[in-house]
């Protein structure tokens, strides 16, 4: 059914939630003198860091992004590839499925936070936050991927874990599969498929 699968990174390939939110909590505490919970900060998952800092009302965006990145690296030991992802990528490659990435990470963040996990050989095209003017939930990142790959939209699906991912996919005119292993809940998300584990991605083919 599908010939092209596009993956999000955080919450889909990598389990980064704890590291991202703990490091963001520290930034908010220092900059706003607020103690915000994971629930209050979960909106940050799936959008570029610059957008998150702006939404929080923090003024010195550039220095805060640097600080957030510094703190994130201190929690990097807790980041891991979700169980089942590696085997799923291997099987999809054996089936000659074209795979790519659309992420809200910048190219620099992609190089430092994703490439070290050794999965790059599975992905032909990567679209990062600084590759487009607009970002998720705007469809522009996926449309950029379609442009670069020449993929048939009717045979392409985006796998992600947030409402932003869903809106990006549907806005671009492609199907969306919710990665429940990262999303934790499907509430408020209208997905074409709800997947409980990565191995179910293979069943879509």
UniProtKB/TrEMBL annotation:
<dbReference type="InterPro" id="IPR023214">
    <property type="entry name" value="HAD_sf"/>
</dbReference>
<protein>
    <submittedName>
        <fullName>Phosphatase</fullName>
    </submittedName>
</protein>
<dbReference type="Pfam" id="PF13419">
    <property type="entry name" value="HAD_2"/>
</dbReference>
<dbReference type="InterPro" id="IPR023198">
    <property type="entry name" value="PGP-like_dom2"/>
</dbReference>
<dbReference type="InterPro" id="IPR041492">
    <property type="entry name" value="HAD_2"/>
</dbReference>
<dbReference type="InterPro" id="IPR006439">
    <property type="entry name" value="HAD-SF_hydro_IA"/>
</dbReference>
<dbReference type="InterPro" id="IPR036412">
    <property type="entry name" value="HAD-like_sf"/>
</dbReference>
<dbReference type="InterPro" id="IPR050155">
    <property type="entry name" value="HAD-like_hydrolase_sf"/>
</dbReference>
């Amino acid at each position: 059914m599908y010939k092209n699968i596009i993956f999000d990174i955080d919450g889909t390939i990598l389990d980064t939630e704890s590291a991202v939110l703990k490091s963001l909590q520290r930034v908010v505490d220092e900059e706003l003198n607020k103690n915000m919970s994971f629930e209050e900060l979960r909106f940050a998952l799936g959008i570029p860091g610059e957008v998150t800092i702006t939404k929080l009302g923090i003024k010195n965006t550039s220095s805060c992004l640097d600080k957030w990145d510094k703190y994130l690296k201190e929690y990097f030991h807790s980041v891991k590839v979700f169980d089942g992802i590696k085997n799923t990528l291997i099987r999809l490659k054996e089936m000659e499925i074209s795979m790519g990435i659309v992420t809200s990470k910048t190219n620099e963040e992609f190089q430092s936070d994703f490439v070290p996990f050794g999965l790059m050989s599975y992905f032909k095209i990567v679209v990062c936050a600084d590759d487009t003017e607009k970002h998720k939930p705007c469809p522009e990142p996926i449309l950029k991927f379609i442009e670069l790959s020449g993929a048939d939209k009717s045979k392409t699906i985006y796998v992600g874990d947030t409402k932003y991912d869903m809106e990006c996919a549907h806005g671009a005119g492609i199907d969306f599969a919710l990665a429940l292993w990262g999303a934790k809940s499907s509430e408020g998300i209208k997905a074409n498929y709800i997947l409980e584990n990565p191995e179910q991605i293979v069943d879509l083919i």
